[in-house]
Design brief:
The protein is mainly β. The protein has one domain (8-57). The protein contains 1 helix and 5 strands, in the order βββββα. It has one helix at 51-57, and strands at 8-11, 16-24, 27-31, 39-41, 46-48. A 5-stranded antiparallel beta sheet has the order 4-3-2-1-5. β3 (27-31) and β4 form a beta hairpin.
Length: 60
């Protein structure tokens, strides 16, 4: 599945919530809630974050 930048996703490999910043070379760059260092994830390991997960992290 293809996601647009700005959407909140869960990296299921790391069990980590992040905002999609960009995709490049078959990898996705995610930024944690509140900012900080981005990390790369495989697109196949991503899923949309639930409303509960986003609320728990303090994001909309």
């Amino acid at each position: 599945m293809t996601y647009r930048p700005g959407v909140w996703l869960v990296d299921t490999h790391l069990d980590r919530l992040g905002c999609l910043m960009a995709t490049e070379g078959g990898r996705a760059q995610l930024r944690p809630p509140g900012g900080g260092r981005e990390w790369e994830a495989r697109p196949g390991a991503l899923r949309l974050a639930t409303a509960v997960e986003k609320r728990a992290a303090g994001v909309r």
